[in-house]
Amino acid sequence: MTAGAKARAEMKDGHALRCIECGAEFKRAEAEFRCPRCGDLLEVVYPAWAESEAKTTVWGSHLKQAWRERKLSLDSQDASGVWRFRDLLPHFADAGQIISLREGNTPVFELPHCARSAGVDRLLAKHQGMNPTGSFKDTGMTVAISVARQQGFSWVACASTGNTSASMAAYAAHGGLRSLVLIPEGKIAWGKLSQPLDYGALTCQLRTDFDGCLRILTELVRRHPIYLLNSINPYRLEGQKTAAIELLEQLDWEVPDHLIVPGGNLGNCSALGKGLEELRSLGLIHTLPKLSVIQAEGANALVRTVREQGGKQLVTVKAETAATAIRIGNPVSWKKAVRVLESTGGRCEQVSEAEIAIAKAEIGSDGVGCEPASAVTQAGLKKLVRQGFVHRQQRVVLVLTGHLLKDPEYTLKFHRRELLTEAAEGEWERLDPYRRAPLEVEPEVEAVLRVLEKAEKTDAAN
Ligand code: F0G
Question: Between the chain's N and C termini, which has fewer beta carbons within 10 Å?
Answer without folding.
Answer: C
